[in-house]
Amino acid sequence: MHMKWRIITCIIFILILDLVLPIKALAHGVKIEYTVNMAIEIIAAYDNGEPMGGAQVTVYAPDEPSSPWLTGVCDDRGYFSFIPDTSKPGTWDVQVRQAGHGDIVHIPIGEDMVVTGGTGGYTALQIVLMAACFIWGSVGTALYFSRRRRA
Amino acid sequence: MRKRIPVLAITVLSVVGIMLVSCGGAVGTLQFHANGEDFVRQGFVSKDGWSINFTHVYITLADVTACQTEPPYDPHLGVNMECDVKVNLLNTYTVDLAEGSENAPPILVGEVQNAAIGHYNAISWKMVKATSGSADSYSLVIVGTAEKDGQSIDFSIKVDEEYEYSCGEYVGDERKGMVAADGTADVEMTFHFDHIFGDAETPVDDDLNVSAVGFEPFAGIAEGGKMDVNMADLQSRFSSEDYQMLVDILPTLGHVGEGHCHCH
Q: What is the ipTM of this complex?
């Protein structure tokens, strides 16, 4: 009986080890990871359609609009992309300049575009429900005490 | 009764204090500059090889207004500007964009000292005919000398057309128009005179040069090394193509740094 329990314990231990310890990697294994991010893509061109290749790009975040949040350069197609910090909702401003020509584009990024969740926030429905509960509780309490006084 | 007086006084002072604090918003100073850029201050070579130096560039500005707009005003849409907050200069100003040395700063047109804090991300103004002074009856007077191949022409070009510009945010090395409490910020009305004459440092087939008149048509109507013309003179003495090119390009003078404006 004792021996039987030892064997069972050994088998369970081996099974657990199999689950916990890493499996030896195969030579042709492939590992793919992905992250969901919201990227802003800019295509800058002159009025005649010529791409602003090599144009200077300056990105300003809404919380500190006077200092560049990011600087960079458009590629040959006039293309530039960046991933904004979604914890900073508001208007993101992107300025593109080259040889005396330039423009600025204003990109609104709302809180609903935030991909990751967090604590501390309530939806409008939750706030209304909480307010209704508070008012109902207050009215009920007041009615309760007023009734006792009359009695 | 005597005991109540101090209490009453403190109460009144407190109420008045709270009212003052709550009603009085933070303010700063917003300056309005006009800038003809280095083209005007230092001179430049036109697309057709004329070396141009400016003695005076008088421009008359009215209804100069800076706005805070949300969403930001987009001049490409060509719509009227809706201001959430605005400050404006009360007078009409004639300024000389060529004033000062070749490294002089932009011309201070005026300032508002009690501007509500915030980002003034749009500006509008009118270019109107002056009613007195050196530019009387004209919205723009360009005076200078052009030289090419040993030939020199003293010129004066007078424009009596009036224009109204609505512009978004300044585009340049720095962001402008951000007024902080007790701070000073500025906005700028920028004028691109290379649009009229073209720029030898820009490729000939660049849109700037393709749409610019250049100086050669002006040189062609000079007499005895002098040329003093207004728009009526130019209409009668320019070819119709050159005159139309000038008429088409004049409204594009107004910018905010490198940013374009909508001209009404």
A: 0.81
